[in-house]
Amino acid sequence: MKELEIREGYFPQLTGIRAIAAFMVYIHHFNPFAERYFGKFTHDFFGKFHIGVTIFFVLSGFLISYRYLDNYKFEKAWFINYIQNRAARIYPVYFLLTTLTFIVQYINGDLGIVKTLILFGSNITFIRGFFDELKFTGIAQGWSLTVEETFYFLAPIIFLFSKKFRIYWQPAFLILIGILIVCIFQNFDFFGFFKDFRFMFLYTFFGRAFEFFCGIFLTLYLKKNKNLKNHFSSGIQKTSFGIIGIMVCIIGFILVKREAEFGIFQPLRIFINNIILPVFIALLFGGLIYENSWVKNILQSSLFEWLGKSSYIFYLIHFGIFHSALTSIFKSNSALNYILIFILLNIISLLIYKFIEHPLNRIIRSINFLKSNTATR
Q1: Which of 15, 180, 205, 315 is the most exposed place for a label (fewest CB within 10 A)?
Q2: Shortest CA distance to 290 belongs to which of 350, 370, 352, 227?
């Protein structure tokens, strides 16, 4: 079974970890461990669970490269199929939820019609993630999808250059491109387009490229060492090291002198998050793939596989109009209401996945765009 999963490029335990990553972001946004009850360290520790986003980025780098690194072609048919598959996975439910979000905001009087249309356009095209003033509009956490989409579009070019140049230099090259863009546009006041280096390193693919490349490096390692049973022990050595390393990085966030209250707005924290943390996440993924452990068994269980499949929707709805609606019903901040809202968000996510996202995904993937293009000529 293990060989079959690896050959087909599907790893149920990595699907399960998507749920963990989404839940971490939820805890980051709605930290239930109040400082006055649990202490400052505990509150700060769980407050740094924004690293769920980094887990998503490393995972995307691994899965896309594992599937396409050896079979990409610079041909029209390949590109159409590649973009079709990526769009089918990401876009339909994002478009529907974004549309619903702006309708609700317009009805509530939060936005005028002109501003609504402008922001809606910047959101559904994903370009809002390039502008500091627009990045949190619509589905606020959707800024990360601009980072993901940038990687999807650049991945074939990354794979091409990996055949001609050492791939290990590419993250540095992409970071230099980001720095150059900031140097050119930082003096232009255009909705905060690449307004400064902090924005570039926190919210753009160019600043966070190394996270994706850690996933690519894991792919290269796995493909180079086919018989990895000889490289990984039967215990949980690398799984444990990965988890411990991730926890050490979180503690590192806490120990670094605070410059701002939210997230990782400090140079050393950015370095830990963008450079050090992804290495341990990739190590964890490698352990989950080839080591037998209770962690792997839990993550590849049916429950976590379903939660992982619906985790993209959970990520999109956990912060925004759905959460606001539920908090208006459960007005108390009690632990019970926190758990109820969390459970209900998961139920809603599972229903949307089963009855909307998955069917739309299959419909879009089934369309033969090549045939359609040929017929129109």
Answers
A1: 180
A2: 227
Residue pLDDT, tens place only, 256-267: 866 554 555 788
User: Smallest Cα–Cα separation from 320: which of 292, 280, 349?
Assistant: 349
| Sign of the CA dihedral with 53 first, then 127, 91, and 99 last | positive
Helix (H) or strand (E) holding 348: helix 335-352
What is the C-alpha separation between 173 and 51, in angstroms, rounded?
24
Sequence-ordered list of residues with C-beta below 8 angstroms from that of 367, at least 6 positions apart, any chain: 84
Rg of the chain's alpha carbons, rounded to an integer?
A: 21
**Residue 297 to residue 249: CA distance in whole angstroms:** 25
Residues paired with 131 in a beta bridge? 193
CA dihedral 134, 136, 142, 148 (to 10 degrees): 60
Collect contacts of 196-199 with beta carbons under 8 A, ≥24 apart: 196/132, 198/265, 198/270, 199/132
105: how many CB neighbours lie within 10 A of its CB? 19
Single out the residue of 67, 64, 250, 69 nearest to residue 148, CA to CA: 64
Distance, CA of 51 to CA of 37 (rounded, Å): 24
**Torsions phi, psi of 296, nearest 5?**
-65, -45
Distance (Å, whole) CA 266 – CA 173: 23
Distances (CA, A) of 116 to 95, 123, 125, 150, 360: 15, 10, 14, 24, 26
Q: Is the pLDDT of residue 45 over 80?
A: yes
Where exactly are the structural domains of the chain?
2-375
Tally helices (H) and strands (E) across the chain. Answer: 21, 0
Closest by CA to 264, choosing from 27, 31, 25, 48, is 48
Distance CA 197, CA 241 (A): 32
Residue corresponding to tokens 């005028």:
112
Q: How far apart are CA 262 and CA 259, in angstroms?
A: 9
Q: How far is it, in rounded angstroms, from Cα 341 to Cα 335? A: 10
Report the distance separating Cα 321 and Cα 287, nearest Å.
37
Between CA 269 and CA 265 the distance in angstroms is 7
Q: Give, as one character, the DSSP assignment of residue 141.
A: G
